[in-house]
Amino acid sequence: MGLLVVDSVSKSFKELEVLKQLSFEVEEGSVFGFIGRNGSGKTTTMKIIVGLLKADAGEVYVKGKKVVFGETPTNKVVGYLPDVPEFYGFMSALEYLHFCGRITGMNTTDIERKTNELISLVGLQESATRRIKGYSRGMKQRLGIAQALMHEPTLLICDEPTSALDPQGRSEILAILDEVRTRTTVLLSTHILADVERICDTVGVLENGHLVLGGKLEEIKTKHRRDSIIVSFDGLDQAALKTLGESLRALPYVVQLTALRDVLRIDVGSVQKDGAALFSELASRKLTVLNYQVLEPTLENLYMDVIA
Amino acid sequence: MNGFFAFLSKELLEMLRTHRIWIVIGVFFLLGLMNAPLANFTPQLLELAGASEMMGDLAITQPTALDAWAQFYANVGQMGVLAILLICGGMLSRERSRDTLVLPLTKGLGRTGIVLVKFLVASMLWTLAVVVATVVSWAYTELLFSGETVKHLFLSVVLFWLFGEFLLALIPLSSVLFKGGLSGLIIPGFVLFVLLVLTAFPDLFFWNPCLLIVNGLGLMDGAIKPSEMLVPALVAVAVAASALVAAIVRFKHAPL
Ligand SMILES: Nc1ncnc2c1ncn2[C@@H]1O[C@H](COP(=O)(O)OP(=O)(O)O)[C@@H](O)[C@H]1O
Ligand SMILES: [Mg+2]
After folding, report:
1. Looking at this predicted complex, what is its ipTM?
2. Given CB atoms, is B206 within the 8 Å cutoff of chain A?
């Protein structure tokens, strides 16, 4: 059983059915990228997981314990960073972390130790004693991660931690999460696929209220490999490339062939089986191959395929 | 319990940093300060305005300490009650509409604790307010009308305080039933208005908590017996306690 189990969860707001029997699991030790368009229900799902919203049907388990709405004991092992974390502006970051530590019942020594550790982890040393009122979005997001980690949770849930930030801020947050992954399982929602590729090892794509794609990122990529090869040549003009394309198309293992400006995209039955044959075919024609590349499926392509 | 005290210290820090405590002390100091002089100079003011001729034989009487306490009920009783409602009305609704409770709640802060702390802090402010206004008012009255006493001064002020507590206890319920930054004022405002209207019929609505404040002066001059205040006081306590319980129950089942 996974660290987090979402089991057939449904949720509607009035007529709007946001989640329809959504199920997925997050394994201990993984970094799970929860992908979906704006309005697909990512925030709703996360709020249900931390007991801020009540599901209409279905159950959520954290470490095997059922999540209850309202006062939620499972939150003892969960750290939560909402999409727009709101702090008390009259407190400093240090004071806020102390406040969080006291709520979770930590003793003063642990609070001191953890606060110092987290302030430097998220790089807020310089502003730790300044009032949060004057913080930028990026600083608040970093403080948000720090507060979520205060009680050393087993599961860290971050709701679009990078969406509202500039590239530098995004990069900083991703670096922090990358560091954190060694000590806690991470569930992060996003609509930025590049972020997922950078730090997630597992993904789930939410669309129409349920998961349309899910699993280990590498496995998904392998499974959806398209077996396409991109080749470009030296000294061939467009017309010559076209002629070459026509003759290659006749080869038995070529499924499809497309001429794209100065490259050929050749879809074969299987790269493993037919790649070598194609390569020697090209060599036998005395062509100078500039570039021969097996097309890696990107998450972007996969995503477009599954939601199409 | 951890959460309760952590949240309480957060509230106290907020009270200091946002200067709310100084605003309360300042406002109620002034409201307490104005009563005795207003009572003292009202006859002169009326004379200046030529009121004595209009009133004919009815000579304007010498002001007394009781007049100063009449001013207390007029000023602290009206402006003061409105001021404390405005100062404390947003205490829970503002946090709900700004989502500042999301993080503490997911950290395990109990919702019962939140409601109780909010009421406790409002109570502390109101107690401070009543003490400041009363002490200042009493001292200045002693100065201007030395030697004069009024009946049941302490009891009257306690009942006056109780009425304020009664209104403050309605704020959490109002804040969880309605949405928006000032939703905390809806129920206390409505209840205050209705009860004020009902004070026109003190015999019919003898239980009306508003009588705690309206009859305060009667208590001081002996026209009203302390025993008559018992039922309004009990009603105030009972309603306040029920409103707090209802707020807690409702808050536990409300999405943020
Ligand atoms: N409290 C609410 N009341 C009504 N509709 C809501 C509420 N919260 C979210 N929604 C709707 O539910 C859908 C999913 O929202 P959300 O979970 O925030 O999506 P995401 O986080 O993936 O962008 C949206 O269409 C949103 O408008
Ligand atoms: Mg969202």
Report:
1. 0.89
2. no
